[in-house]
Amino acid sequence: MTTIRLGLVGLGKIARDQHIPAIAATPGIELVAVASRNARADGVSNYTDLAAMLAGEPELDAVVLCLPPQVRYDTAIMALEAGKHVFLEKPPGATVSEAQALAALASQHGRTLFASWHSRYAAGVPLAKAWVAANAAERVTITWKEDVRHWHPGQDWIWQPGGFGVFDPGINALSILTEVMGAAVRLRDAELQIPSNRQAPIAARLRMQTASEVPIVAEFDFRQTGPQTWDIVIEGRGGTLVLSQGGNQLMIDGAAQGVGVEDEYPGLYRRFVDLVRTGRSDADLAPLQIVADAFLRGRMQSTDAFHD
Length: 308
Ligand code: NAP
Description:
By secondary structure, the chain is of the alpha/beta class. 32% of the residues lie in helices and 28% in strands. The chain folds into two domains: 4-115, NAD(P)-binding Rossmann-like Domain (Rossmann fold); 120-259 and 292-303, Dihydrodipicolinate Reductase, domain 2 (2-Layer Sandwich). The strands form two sheets. The chain has a nine-stranded mixed sheet. A six-stranded parallel sheet has the order 3-2-1-4-5-6, with helices on both faces.
């Protein structure tokens, strides 16, 4: 089978930390070019933007976009119109309607669109999903609290409209939630705390429920110093499940479960290779829809100014 020739756009933190090593570790796909306004990658062709990369690499099969959400749409449209398969970092767009438009365009051009949710590939998620299916969830509590200064230093885009603020990590929890519950999740109400000098929330509280009225509460906070918390607790008829470390550790009724090693980005690339080879797309927008609903339905509260 031929190898997928891939171009990467946006050489920032996630591209360097995760994408480049994961591509190198995945059979069937090869990084041949990078487009970056400011940086260069070793061992591949380098371009300053996607248009130059498409012109210089006519043999490219696919493009992965590791850009902030605000600039993802225009780049994705350009790649799809050039006939390339597209792998989107999360979130798949700055709005639901632009993500839907990308899915429609990919289908029209017969190309793969992969709206990736890396946390769904965390080691504990498949077992958690199976447990929920067998144990009828009765209550879900999500606590996703991290230090924005540590994880997102100098990322101004995160505080701008379309940057999502604390929903940038919070949407990862929602991607796991919507994967494991096996039922649609509806937002009931939300509170969003927005620093007086910023455009996006630094903390949020969401109340959600499933169609069968299982209550779900999520607390997101970007001001956590000390130990970081990325936990989902699911109480069910058969006991209590705790998914921690962003989905990579799992305890059931206090007993640690063997879930294997963390393998999120290699898992994403194996999925992308399979989608391209089988001519399919994967663009579930449920986590993005819940975030959009929180902005639509939430009470906005101004809070202390935030300085990086
Ligand atoms: P980042 O370090 O700020 O990198 C984003 C890159 O996009 C920049 O380095 C820049 O690359 C390019 N870019 C193009 N237009 C830009 C613009 N107008 N403003 C800022 N950058 C622009 O961000 P990141 O952490 O890699 O995050 C990128 C995406 O990956 C986000 O959607 C985020 O949610 C997702 N993600 C991040 C993490 C994480 O831990 N950081 C984890 C999972 C997913 P060039 O200078 O090369 O053009």
